[in-house]
Amino acid sequence: MIWDEKYECMDREQLRELQSERLREVVDRVYNKVPFYRQLFDREGIKPGDIKGVEDLSKLPFTTKDTLRGNYPYGLFAEPLSKIVRIHASSGTTGKPTVVGYTKKDLDTWAELIARIVVQAGATEEDVVQICFGYGLFTGGFGLHYGLEKLGTTIIPASIGNTRRQIMLMEDFATSVLVSTPSYALYMAEVLQEMGVERESLKLRLGLFGGEPWTESMREQIKSKWDITATDNYGLSEIIGPGVSGECLEFKGLHISEDHFIPEIIDPETGESLDFGEEGELVFTALTKEAFPVIRYRTKDISILWDQPCSCGRTTARMKKVTGRTDDMLIIRGVNVYPSQIESVLMEIKGVAPHYQIMVERKGHLDNMEVKVELEEELFTGSFRDLEAVEKKIKSGLNSVLGIDVRVKLVEPKTLERTEGKSKRVIDKRELTDS
Ligand code: DLL
Hints:
Elements: H1 5-8, H2 12-33, H3 35-44, H4 65-70, E1 84-90, E2 98-103, H5 104-120, E3 128-131, H6 139-151, E4 154-156, H7 163-172, E5 177-180, H8 182-195, E6 206-210, H9 216-226, E7 229-236, E8 241-247, E9 254-256, E10 261-266, E11 279-286, E12 297-306, E13 318-319, E14 330-332, E15 335-337, H10 339-347, E16 352-363, E17 366-375, H11 377-380, H12 384-402, E18 407-411, E19 426-428, H13 429-434
Parallel strand pairs: 3-4, 3-5, 5-6, 6-7, 16-19, 17-18
Antiparallel strand pairs: 1-2, 7-8, 8-9, 9-13, 10-11, 11-12, 12-13, 14-15, 16-17
């Protein structure tokens, strides 16, 4: 089923016209309503009239998380607080959160966009949906909630925490769709096993996962542990929250709601625009938001865009699943290392649990990386020789993918910290000692 055929299957020429019209409007709006944008455009010598359509997009300057921080909390709002009905914020690792606002119309738009992505992932009004995202400043809980309600599913707003109780609810309330971060879904699978709940006693059939990067190998783990269809959906608070894009059941990338957001891929080093099919940093312009329009926002997420129509019938551009960010790349002794590379190696090795942590330290002038890897129960009770063999396998797997030697530390089952929201895989102690 397609939620909004008119826009999701629009002729691409027509779509471009619509985007151009909306771009002209939004540029005009931010120039007249947000002093920050007026000053920025004036400084760059840009007048709203210079932007005639999508082809002029690259004339506009970028915005970043620092733009939001610099205008904390309400400086970028294009409507007065009397028109704002909701605030969300994303918790940065340090300092103040970045704050976003929504008018009533923005909340309606958001619910529509969520309805699109959950329908394309296969949810229907027959489903009982357990939302295990935090309901709070994080956009995940409320975001998914109103879109799923719009579709007419039965919602269990379970929020996060108390995993045993979550499993009990899942069993008793006949949950058929799980909404969570992928890492929490794996943790829940572990608790399910601990509790001795039979998989057959559950009705779960579909997972709508998002909020953090995860690899295809992680998806395989989730599918095999839960025996469900596992779909990915993507978004960020600055653009709207979840609902920016999501997978259909063809699994050929995530469809972007292009009538509301113009996606671009740029070279993260030079800022230059790249073509469809080329990998780089994702940039979005939010065309229709009243309270918080945002121009050319640099996400730091790495992806590729495709514009060919999908076999599902949708014509909107698709983005490659995001497995890394420009700022999660570690440079270890001059070599670029992405956590997703490490994850892919680990997930291929039998006996290794899908839980790991990467520690980086600097001793003298030398960077050292240690990967803590949790083992599955069966392997841990095995012989010393088995443990040695698995350690060797991990080391050589990492060495052949990364090209550097990595220390591997095997740890007992269930000893690494579990998270209910976004997981934290990397502890870079160099940041602490350098600054
Ligand atoms: O995480 C919005 C969201 C909530 C999306 C629930 C999907 C489901 P923020 O807290 O602002 O918003 O974090 C945004 O999270 O720039 C990505 O780096 C990452 N991210 C979100 N979804 C995905 C995904 C929400 N499916 C940041 N794959 C983004 C990879 C994701 N990364």
